[in-house]
Design brief:
The protein is of the alpha/beta class. Helices cover 41% and strands 14% of the residues. Strand 3, helix 5 and strand 4 form a beta-alpha-beta unit. The protein is globular and about 55 Å long.
Length: 236
């Protein structure tokens, strides 16, 4: 079979951290901690680079996740800060572009500042051999993004058309292409409002493993599965 070369943007919905911890009799925070280890995230980015994938997105915290226990939310924010610090301290930062998708007005200022540092530090990175944009989605929700894009059009007194709406999405302002492959772990078979417009023609891959157990071989398996798909985009 001829290899499908249209795989440019992979998005991962890393589900099952709390279930992984519960099955092992551990605190939920330990599931999140294993899932957010920098070396794991780095390995996924490097594998994507090897596969000539230009964009890898991971959804870390949704707009709905604010409903969780305050202690769990605080622990997650601390984990994200540690993850950002690891990015800042690692040589990987020289070979990627780092962007944040979502809101910065509701997360801790210290985390928002670190995200800004990463975006500023990597904005001009262009590794000619292995270029990749890594997107961390924090306080992101598809409905929230669409509402803000619509309000932006209204404020600018622009026509609310498909073209204008897409142009005003946060992802478009970050120059993120539409998603080709969405991977969701832990056996859940839904998108939970993730990039509703940008994933309209994405291939959906559902893995039974909880995200803390998801590894490079699982990522390769999902990519190989994508190459078996025939993508018609509504045509022949």
């Amino acid at each position: 079979m001829t290899k499908n070369t249209s795989l440019k943007h992979i998005a991962i919905i890393p589900d099952g951290n709390r279930r992984w911890a519960k099955e092992k009799g551990l605190a939920a925070s330990l599931g999140h901690k294993k899932a957010a280890k920098f070396q794991r995230i780095k390995s996924f980015i490097q594998e994507a680079q090897k596969q000539n994938i230009t964009h890898l997105t991971m959804w870390g915290f949704s707009t709905e996740n604010w409903k969780r226990n305050k202690l769990e939310v605080a622990a997650l924010m601390n984990l994200f800060e540690n993850l950002c610090q690891d990015f800042l301290n690692d040589e990987l930062i020289e070979t990627i572009r780092f962007v944040h998708l979502g809101r910065k007005d509701r997360i801790p200022n210290s985390l928002a500042n670190m995200l800004n540092q990463l975006e500023t530090k990597t904005i001009n990175n262009n590794n000619n051999t292995l270029p990749i944009t890594f997107t961390l989605a924090l306080d992101y929700g598809g409905e929230d993004e669409l509402i803000r894009a619509t309000n932006s059009l209204k404020n600018q007194k622009q026509e609310i058309s498909s073209k204008n709406l897409i142009a005003n999405l946060n992802s478009s302002r970050l120059n993120l292409p539409f998603v080709d492959l969405i991977i969701r772990t832990s056996g859940e078979q839904r998108l939970s409002g993730f990039m509703p417009l940008q994933s309209a023609y994405a291939e959906l891959y559902f893995c039974q493993k909880h995200f803390p157990d998801f590894n490079i071989d699982d990522l390769k398996k999902a990519i190989n599965w994508f190459y078996t798909r025939k993508r018609r985009f509504g045509g022949n």
